[in-house]
Amino acid sequence: MALGLAYADDPAHRHPDFRAVFARKASSYIEPDATRPTLATVQALGILSHYYGGLCQQGLGFMYTG
User: Fold this and answer.
1) Does the structure show a pLDDT above 90 at 50?
2) Do residues 53 and 37 make contact, with C-beta atoms less than 8 angstroms apart?
3) Domain tally for the chain?
4) CA 50, 41, 24: angle at the middle one, nearest 5?
5) Is the per-residue pLDDT at 34 higher than 80?
6) What does 24-58 look like in DSSP terms, one character per residue?
7) pTM of the predicted model, to two decimals?
8) Which pLDDT value is given to residue 33?
């Protein structure tokens, strides 16, 4: 949701603060699974990496890629 809402028609939905709510919730679900990742966990981390890279937060983007 956080990544996809960047392309929403409604400017309120495109706002980074609104999208960050979804990214934080996704991170809270993914991080406990990072110790024993499944393929779904790896894909989710890749999506979060693209989300943070799109916000010019390369440090977080690289962290989720690694």
Assistant:
1) no
2) no
3) 1
4) 55
5) no
6) HHHHHHHGGGGGS--HHHHHHHHHHHHHHHHTT-H
7) 0.70
8) 78
Q: What is the span of the domain harbouring residue 28? A: 4-65
Q: pLDDT at residue 60 above 70?
A: no
Report the greatest alpha carbon distance in the chain: 38
Angle subtended by helix axes 39-54 and 16-30, to nearest 10: 160
Which of the four pLDDT bands, split at 50, 70 and 90, describes residue 65? low
Give the mean model confidence (pLDDT) for residues 3-10: 87
- Which are the contacts of 39, defined by CB distance < 8 A and separation ≥ 6? none
Measured CA to CA, the distance from residue 8 to residue 61 in angstroms comes to 22
Residue at token pair 């690289």: 62
Joined tokens for residue 17: 């603060």
* Tokens, residue 60: 């977080």
Nearest-angstrom CA–CA distance, 38 and 43: 9
